[in-house]
Amino acid sequence: MQDSAAQILEDTTPLFTNDTIVFGLLMLALGLIFYTAKQKSGFWYKFYRIVPALFMAYFIPAIFTSAGLIAPDWTTITETGEAVESSTSLYYVSSRYLLPAALVLMTLSMDLKAVFNLGPKALIMFFTGTVGIIIGGPIAIMLIATFSPETVGGVGPDAVWRGLSTLAGSWIGGGANQLAMLEIYGYNQKLYGGMVFVDIVVANIWMALLLIGIGKTTKIDKWLKADTTAIEELKEKVSNYAKKVERTPTLSDYMILAAIAFGTVGIAHFGAGHLSGAFESYVEGMPAGLKRNSLTFLSSSFFWMITITTIIGIILSYTKLKKYEGVGASKIGTVFIYILVASIGMKINILEVFENEMLVLVGLVWMLIHALLLILVAKLIRAPYFFLAVGSQANVGGAASAPIVASAFHPSLATVGVLLAVFGYAVGTLGAVLCTVLMQIVAPV
């Protein structure tokens, strides 16, 4: 009986399971990327003019995972036939410790007034992305149903539209909104893992494409006939300030930066723990229904962690601590961001895309509609690629990856991504419910 179980369950243990070794491998990859990216001539110079280093920081860990060297999680079959589930903690550490540290360091030099001077196009593109997700789901179902109705069919708790509702929650808001949709529509939790897989694969493919586009920003903006004046003025203002206060850093400077970064992380986690607990009691005390589920994000500790970090960063940008940009605050923050990107990259196994290709196809068509709408609106209002990319990622990627995309344009812009992503949590569940109602209407029975 044990042998039979061992045959049914697949051992997916990667070559390296120790987080210390995996982290070292990721850091070696990042070091190699930066070493080759600084070449001023030859193959690598031409290569990085097309492919951004940030994309390679994401893609190489994905190759490692696909090759079986590392894995985000895995199953080990013991000699007795028992299946032991294990996972890495690198993404958790990167997103919970390094991300808030990066955000506060990048926000130190921020000019909040200049950020607001970017105008309404950022919000327009964010809501365009939201609408793209809302209408993209039902359109994807209708298109796939024309040749594979079984892929988007089902009845009762197994109905695919119920499962896709969790994607809508994730792609407009975040993890809390995703779980709220799972509760609202009662999708079969035994099948829920398949939807999580589609979420990871499609969202990461789209993020990869956005990162590639960053390397062609000038050409894209020219095609969009975009006015990038406000963005360039903000970047120039921050760069000029950094040069003005630039000095050779001392050990004391680095220790103070570490105190600012990880002191903020500690405060953010402390506040998030109390606030999420308090709001969880408040939300759970509300009558069951849409109103309660639409406020689920308030009980998310990650939401409060990002919010508190952003508030602290904005407050510190009005103090003398702002001058620590002159000793490399945003550069250290960028190091943390690259580590987070690498940990996100290792979550995708390229080969697994072909294991449930039809459901992944639904997600890809859905994301294509989201992308096409964004491009159309950006072209109509002449919005820069920055607003397109960050507006999209604030929906699809949320607070973990929106600042990554934003900071790829310039570290001072990371806060724009965070502010939009936090806003996404607030509208995530309501937008997802609207999307689900439409998907239910068009889904084949």
Helices and strands in order:
Layout: H1 2-8, H2 19-37, H3 42-50, H4 53-66, E1 73-77, E2 83-87, H5 90-107, H6 112-116, H7 121-145, H8 160-172, H9 175-185, H10 192-214, H11 217-224, H12 229-244, H13 251-284, H14 290-294, H15 301-316, H16 329-345, H17 357-381, H18 385-396, H19 402-409, H20 414-442
Antiparallel strand pairs: 1-2
Helix pairs in contact: 2-4, 4-16, 5-13, 5-15, 5-16, 7-8, 7-17, 7-18, 7-20, 8-9, 8-10, 8-20, 9-20, 10-17, 10-18, 13-15, 15-20, 17-18, 18-19, 18-20, 19-20
Q: What can you tell me about this protein's structure?
A:
The protein is an all-alpha fold and 445 residues long. The protein has helices at 2-8, 19-37, 42-50, 53-66, 90-107, 112-116, 121-145, 160-172, 175-185, 192-214, 217-224, 229-244, 251-284, 290-294, 301-316, 329-345, 357-381, 385-396, 402-409, 414-442, and strands spanning 73-77, 83-87. Helix 4 runs parallel beside helix 16 (329-345) and helix 7 (121-145) runs antiparallel to helix 8. The radius of gyration is 22 Å and the shape is globular.
Question: How would you describe this structure in keywords?
Answer:
445 residues, mainly alpha, 2 domains, disordered N terminus
